[in-house]
Fold:
Amino acid sequence: MKIKELAEKTGLTAYTIRYYEKEGLLDSRHFQRDENNYRNYNEKAIERLKLIKKFQSVGFSLVELKEFFQEHTTHSATNLEAIEWIRQKIGEIERKKDEYDQIIGKLNWMLEYKLALVNDPQKANSMLINPPFD
Structure:
């Protein structure tokens, strides 16, 4: 299949697909060159692109995916290593979530303070005595 059809089947743009190829996320297992030098993609390309989208949707970067796919291609990445890779990503996202929760808490306090300044200046002054953060 040509790149236009592949783009339609995966929901990606032709530009994105070419970029992934340039970055080494698609290789000769995913397409062959026709006599006119056009790429002819196979079903493995669809599977790989859907996998890339799935991993990106849960926070993996293209750099991380490229590294993982290269290790997986050379069969040096075992299932146990893949499990550890996913566990590390879970830990990273949990740390980010904690940071975002703290930011949201501070923003909510700031909003409450600003509303108090408008509606109840005495409450606003009391809020400054013991803010919930440094």
Observations:
- The helical segments are 3-10, 14-22, 43-57, 62-73, 79-119, 121-129.
